[in-house]
Amino acid sequence: MGSRLLGIIVKEFIHLRRDILALFLALVVPVVMLGLFGWAINTDVKHVPTAVFEQSGSPEAREFLDALGNSQYFEVRYWVSSHRELTRLIDGGAAKVGVVIPPDFSRRLSRQAADIQLIVDASDPLVATSAINAAASLGLQRSLRVMARTLEGTALGRQSDPPVNVRVRAWYNPDLVSAIFIVPGLIGALLMQTTISAMAVSVVRDREKGTLEALIVSPIRRWELLLGKIVPNLAVAYGQMTMALVVARFVFDVPIRGSLTLLYLMAAAFMLGTLGIGIFVSAVSRTVPQAMQLAFLSFLPSIYLSGMLFPIEGMPLAAQYLASLVPLTYFLRIVRGIVLKGVGFE
């Protein structure tokens, strides 16, 4: 019994030695992924892209905005001249926070409490919570400084409200429900996983069985063979997407504010790209298990670096550059923009 068992163990080790790629994927890749995700993932969001609509032009407003930029939680990237422009930046995802300072800010601050409006893209609850808490703390600090200057009992000192009142407006997800953020992202992840894995396994399986060689030497043209592989996978992915949207709407109460036609068209462009990744995976895989491992290897970084679960704004700068190379990053912006914000081509 011992010799037979030893023989089986030796045989398996010989197989592992012959399949260097599988051994590399099993031993080295998990360590690399652990280091990558431990370095990149961070829920403490800082340097949130911010747009400012400053209508006052007063020193007090400038002082508040300087404190805002120095807080490390906000990064003022845009100065706008209208509410329309501010809305366009937040709808497009270029800015996550909008700060609106009214024209009479300085006058109201000298007589009573002055309001500052903070518009937050709440489609990502982590980013929204961080921005809201940081802005509230900043408003309180500015209020204490103003009140310290009026200790002689002026009208300002007798107000019950703080002198600088930061009023928050949370757009797209006012209750900061996590499911409204995560569920639309899962649609993109499901499409990516299905198309890459199905295409890679389909081609490698036909190659293992010898079917692919028979099809190549047949009168079928190569583009017909390729299209015949793509169309069924697209149909399955569209069915999966439709079922996911139904569940999102009626189980998780995710609002669908935009055009479903536009969403399906954008999904087609995304899936053609992921099907191409699946074809590439099949080209470098010799067996179905290898194809599955490589598909998983291409899928896992996309989940963590695309902003599906963790905000990209909280990642180190180098990790944000890596995220810009992930196709899922852009498709998630499309899905959330159409589903949660109702944006289109206009």
Give the strand line-up of the largest sheet.
2-1-3-4-5
Quaternary assembly? single chain
Bulk shape = elongated
Can you give the mean pLDDT? 83
Key descriptive features of the protein:
5 strands; 346 residues; single chain; 10% strand
Summarize the structure.
Helices cover 64% and strands 10% of the residues.
What topology does this entry show?
Layout: H1 2-18, H2 20-40, E1 48-54, H3 59-70, E2 74-79, H4 83-91, E3 97-101, H5 105-111, E4 114-121, H6 125-148, E5 164-171, H7 178-209, H8 211-216, H9 222-250, H10 260-283, H11 288-305, H12 317-323, H13 327-341
Parallel strand pairs: 1-2, 1-3, 4-5
Antiparallel strand pairs: 3-4
Helix pairs in contact: 2-11, 7-9, 7-10, 7-11, 7-13, 9-10, 10-13
